Structures are given as C-alpha cells and as structure tokens.
C-alpha cells in the first residue's frame, strides 16, 4: 500500500503577491485622489472603475456561469433610477442611497432569471435585451420619474466639490473591492471550483455534484447587484439620468468588447480589456461611427480567431497570474516553482 | 369597432413581423444560432434598396427582383465568411461574432447614409386603402400579409417535401450523422442563411414602403422577430407566423390604449407567454 506524500497546497505565486500589493497601492491611490489629482482625473477614475466593475460582472456571467446577457443595462438603469428617486423624492442622503439602491436590481433580477432561464443559450441573451427594453419603456412612461425627460441629482449641490470627490473615490474603491475582490474571493472559494468546472463543461460539472441551475441563479443575482452598483455610481457622477442613457444598449457592447478583447473567463482579462477600452475611448471616440465600426469588427475578430483574448494569449506563454484561482500541490522539501 | 380595427391592423402588422421572424426561426432550427445582426441586415438591404431605386429609378417589383438575389448572396457570404467559423455547441462565439457584426454594420450604415430616416415611394400603393364598412384596410399591408403567408407556406413545403429540406432536417437533428449519410452541413447551412437573408430582402422593400428606415432601427426589428419566434415556439415556421400575429395584435391594442404603450405591450405579451407557455403556442405540451 502506497502512502500519499504530504504536500502543501500553494495558492499564491510571486506574480500574484506583486499584483496583490499593486492592487492595494492602486486602491489607496484611488481613495487619496481628491488630495493629489484634479477633478478631470477623478472623473476618469470613476468612469474606469465603473467599466472594470461592469465588465467583471459580465465576465462572471458569460465566462463562468455560461449566461450570455446583452441586457445588463436593465440593472444599470434600474439602480441609477433607484438612487435618483431615493435622493430626489424621499430625501435620502445620496451616499447612503447607493447601497439602498442595490435592492432594486436584486429584486428585478429574480423574476428576470426565472422567466428567461427556460430559453436556450442565444435566446436567453436576446431575452435579457427584451427585459431591458421593457424596463426602459416602463421608465419612459412613468410620470413619477419624469418620464422620458429624466431626473437630475439636485441634492448634490449641498455638498462641496471636494466632499463629493472624497465620497465618489471611496465608493469607487468599495465598488472595485466588491466586484473584482468579490469575484476573486468567490473563485478561490469552493464555489469557485464549482464555477470553474461549470465554465469548462456544465454537464460534467452537474454530474460531479455541482448544482448548476442554483449556482447560475445566484451568479445572475450577484452580477445584477454588482452591475447596478456600478450604474448607481456612474450616474451619481453624471448627476443626470434619462431612460435613453441609463438603459442604453451601449453598456452591453462595452462589457462584451472589454471581456472579449481582454480575455473571457479570467479576472485579469476584464481589467486589461477595461483599460484598453478606456484609453481607446479617450483617443479614438472623436472618429465617431468609424471608431465604432472598428470596435465591432474587433469584437467579431476576437470571437472568430482569438476566443481567449489578450489574457488568453499572455497566459499561454507566461505562467504569471495576477489573480491565481487554482491550487498547486508542493512537496514540503521542495521550494516550489 | 375600434377594437376590431385594432385587431385587423395588428394582424396586418404581424404580416411584417412574420417576414423577419421566418428567417430567424429557420436559422435557429437548423444551426441553433441567433444572428444578432438580423435586423441590421434588413436595414442594410432597405437602405441599399432605397439608394438603388433612386439611382436607377426602379419600380417596386423590379427592386425586389434585384434585391432578393443580392440578399441571398449576402447571406451566403455571411455564412461562409463568419457563421461557419462560430457555429457549434457553445452559443457564446456565434452570439459575440454577430453582436460585433451588428455594431459594425449599424455604424457603417450611419457613416454611409447618415442618421436621416428614408423611405421608398410606391406610386400610390403605400396610401391606397379599401373601405370595409367603416374599417379602412391598407392595400400594402394586405400584400405584406399575403406575401408572409406565401413565404411561410413555401418554406414549410421546401423543408417537408424536397430533397434539400430532408438534408436540412437531417443536419438540424444531428450534424455528424447527417454528414455521414452524404449531406454536406456547410452547404445546408449556407443555403439556409441565404434563404433567411433573401426573405429579409423582400421584408426590406415592404418595410421601406410602409414606414421609414434609419441605420439605428435594426435592433428593434431583431427583438420583434425574436419575440414572434419565442411566442410561437422555437424553430417552428408556422409557430413563428402565429407568434408574429400575436405580437402585432398586442402592439396594435397597446397603441390604442396609449401611444407610449404599444411596443411595451408586445414585450409584456412576450414575457407572459414565456411565463405561461414557454414551449410556444404552436407546440404540444411536453
């Protein structure tokens, strides 16, 4: 009878320790921004944080749970509107209203999933779009939220610019912690094993004892809340929301582009993609329609020829994950790799 | 009387939706993929048709004769160039690829034709109507509905009764087994996409005659086609037709109640259908 050697489970690598330290530094720098950066930079940081968060949530949905959605804008708009209504109509403190506004996307996601999960893969995707359109039309017809004209966040005028900026950067730091950090934590937990198994093959994951349908349901709700969180912060920074902007299908294109170009099924991919999209948007959005044609063609190209995206290309050559979610077995007298 | 009128207008509107839905039902039935650029292709064909009609002063019929082969060629190229590379078990690649194509097409059309709305002149056909005891019925919508019925019936016949249809059903049921018995799935796929887009060529002419088109209109048409297919039952051609009628009537009744509610009513009926009869009105209960 052979005895198994005693092994240590190694979960961190040198690259992940560096990445982790850099992430902490970046979060600190983000929170300290009101004291070292000007308002334009802070606006950009808020925008970038929202892109990263929304893309990360879409990655969790499409990359792990196999739920391709083109209707996440439903939750962005719903959370944005919830925030504006809480502040403008009920006089709730705007910074307190952000977490309260999460209730709306959470509630909305439950019937959405229960109705749509019956639809086959591609039909599920368009189903989410129909839900987003329906929510947009309901909002457009509601006089209570000023119908198609939208709402303005007037209560923000009672705060000085500096106070607003401090609150916004702290909210963004929490947003990144919850969405990126939360995904990282989730994927390293035992649920992460189940999610990774589901990503690779849902049927065999099911036969290994993973409750695929329940996990999908939970991921859908979590992604709705995370996406809504980003939406609430984004429109709080914009100070204005209309049905056309809040429920804009452009949010779906942004998340798909970011995740597909960055690399689906990895945390690193969504971050790389978000950075790339953010800078592309700064430099090339002046070219208008032609820029969008290039983005569309690039998404098409990635889907046909490079499904792993940039991170897939990098990680197949260098074994240096920033956010390792796997486990590596190391013999105690071995110094590791 | 007002509701009878809404019902009739709804059925006629459904004729238009049936023409979009037919191609989508065919493609999903054969390849299990949904082309997100479905609506954008229709708008592309409509704008091309309007420009062609203006440049060569073509009449409605001759425009259809020119546009349909063009559409079929476009569908064939789409399948050969893009869809064949992404069709498979995993729905993600085909969704993302056609989504990218949809964004690219919309903005390309915006660049070429600008955001203006355009329409086609039909020499009085678009405004002609018949008075049926107080209910006015447009001649053009009736032609659209009759065309939709003829298209659905012919496609249904082709699939049920011809050699090509047998190959198509075989490829849909089991691609590999079909390939072993001498059916070339790639040819079947290309032919079905060519047929689906060719039908969009006809729909494009009618859409630009009865309403206006602009580059951003595609996604809405995609959603209507999708709703019709789901209400009717996935993959069934007559199901898609009946689904289109249900959607058209729901929207027409919604518009009568409040102009802002028309489209929303369609979405609500779709969601209700999903809750009550997810297998579609035309399908037998499992």
Automatic annotation (TrEMBL), chain A:
Primary location group: membrane
Membrane topology reported for the UniProt record: Multi-pass membrane protein
Molecular-function annotations in GO: branched-chain amino acid transmembrane transporter activity
InterPro entries assigned: ABC_transp_permease, LivM-like
Coiled coil: none
Subcellular location: Cell membrane
Protein's UniProt name: Branched-chain amino acid ABC transporter permease
Native source species: Bradyrhizobium cajani
Automatic annotation (TrEMBL), chain B:
Cited CDD domains: TM_PBP1_LivH_like
Membrane spanning residue stretches: 6-30, 42-72, 92-113, 134-159, 188-209, 221-247, 259-276
CC per GO annotation: plasma membrane
Membrane topology category: Multi-pass membrane protein
The UniProt record lists the keyword Transmembrane helix: yes
GO biological process, one term: amino acid transport
GO MF annotations, alphabetized: transmembrane transporter activity
Keyword line: Amino-acid transport, Cell membrane, Membrane, Transmembrane, Transmembrane helix, Transport
Subcellular location field: Cell membrane
Keyword Membrane: yes
Chief subcellular location: membrane
Family: Belongs to the binding-protein-dependent transport system permease family. LivHM subfamily.
Protein name per UniProt: Branched-chain amino acid ABC transporter permease
Taxonomic source organism: Bradyrhizobium cajani
